[in-house]
Design brief:
single chain; mainly alpha; 15 helices
């Protein structure tokens, strides 16, 4: 087989699992609605404020609760029925989308109300995502988990293309409120899918105390386990740096598309879709890998490339050239995100899976929020170009230093 041929057998074998196919179908519908709403929230915020700081603040609002709640939801996922947790989270997310639609249609929406509703979404998302992460290993054998994570990323980024395209069409033809209504409808599909999954019955952990007791102790044990783990101990901080410094570019695209390239909602849809195409290609490369062997170096190498490309993107003022760079940057960005989740799923123990994945989720979701607020605030004062150049260069430097120090440590052991 040629060195760069893509083997789809691992993908076919993973999708042969009926449970996982159902889960993927329901997840696709929900994610499509989420991307439609995500674009609409960013555009509506920009339309109301024309402020990079407000874009960063709204992005931050969604992820502030992650810092507190994601570690707790990891403990909850290890103790309670994972399917029920996921369904409850989706129902609350449905309420949030309905509220956004109602306020927008009535003309009562304000930047502060968007902030508050995104803050509510931030409470709900750790519940949904942690349960979703730990559901996958219940459907598939361990050797297929890495492929499943990559396939889920393909779905995520496929909807990342379709969602903004549909969202841009909705905004320009009917109005932004219909984007929120479409997302509300999408939750019906995923709730139904979760209800029909054929999963093993939940077995409560055997504990000498009440089921809610010892939550803080278990949460602390999860963080200790993760950062003392021989692989996760270096992986999570490295991915945390990338998520904080380079991933926020997606949250800032409404301002970049309008302020730098003067392309409005159509330009935003194009740039977001271009990101999605690059991410799909990166996810496809990971999905066809038979094992996670060597994926650690691949993650660090992709982090270096992504940082350099974000720096290059900041210096371009030609729209289509910027889109091309954004495409390649997204290819490497998704290899960092999906590769790190695959590696985490593969090396973690079953008893600590929910807590370790909640740490990964906390870092990779809170990081972009903090970065978006920082970069958005800097962009309001200095423009988007300088902050993006700095964060891209810093990301590449951190990854290169990580690779050098790890290689140095291995030589010292030999």
């Amino acid at each position: 087989m040629p060195a760069f041929a893509i083997d789809f057998s691992a993908i076919r074998e993973t999708l042969a699992n009926r449970n996982f196919r159902r889960f993927t179908a329901g997840n696709s519908i929900s994610l499509l609605g989420s991307w439609i709403q995500r674009m609409a929230v960013g555009w509506l915020t920009w339309e109301l404020t024309h402020s990079g700081a407000w874009l960063g603040a709204v992005a931050m609002a969604e992820f502030i609760p992650v810092l507190v709640l994601a570690p707790i939801t990891g403990v909850v996922a290890d103790r309670f029925d994972k399917r029920r947790i996921a369904i409850i989270g989706q129902v609350f997310a449905l309420f949030q989308a309905v509220a956004l639609a109602a306020l927008t249609f009535s003309g009562m929406i304000t930047p502060m109300l968007i902030f508050v509703l995104q803050l509510f979404a931030g409470v709900v998302q750790p519940i949904i995502q942690t349960a979703r992460l730990v559901l996958v290993p219940m459907m598939l054998p361990r050797e297929r988990i890495g492929n499943a994570v990559a396939l889920t990323s393909l779905v995520f980024n496929g909807t990342r293309i379709l969602g903004p395209a549909i969202g841009g069409l909705i905004i320009t033809t009917t109005g932004v409120g219909y984007s929120f209504a479409a997302n509300a409808l999408s939750y019906v599909g995923v709730i139904w899918t979760l209800m029909i999954l054929d999963l093993p019955p939940h077995v409560p952990p055997v504990r000498g105390r009440g089921i809610w007791s010892g939550m803080i102790t278990d949460m602390r044990a999860g963080w200790t386990y993760t950062f003392k783990h021989p692989v996760l101990g270096w992986l999570i901080p490295a991915v945390g740096a990338a998520s904080t410094l380079t991933w926020p570019i997606g949250d800032l695209l409404p301002g970049i598309a309008d302020q730098i390239f003067e392309r409005g909602a159509a330009g935003l849809a194009t740039m977001t879709s271009v990101q999605g195409v690059g991410a799909i290609l990166g996810g496809l490369v990971l999905a066809q890998r038979p094992t996670v062997d060597g994926i650690g170096r691949l993650i660090i190498g992709a982090m270096i490339m992504n940082g350099l490309l974000v720096a290059v993107f900041s210096m371009i003022d030609i729209f289509w050239l910027a889109c091309a760079v954004l495409f390649v940057s997204s290819f490497f960005s998704v290899m960092v995100g999906v590769g790190s989740q695959s590696l985490t799923q593969s090396v973690v123990s079953d008893q600590m899976r929910g807590r370790a994945l909640s740490v990964w989720y906390t870092i990779t979701r809170a990081g972009p929020a903090i970065g978006a607020l920082l970069l958005g605030s800097l962009a309001t004062r200095f423009g988007f170009e300088g902050p993006l150049l700095a964060t891209g260069a810093i990301t590449a430097a951190i990854a290169a230093a990580n690779l050098f120090l790890r290689d140095l440590g291995k030589r010292a052991e030999d």
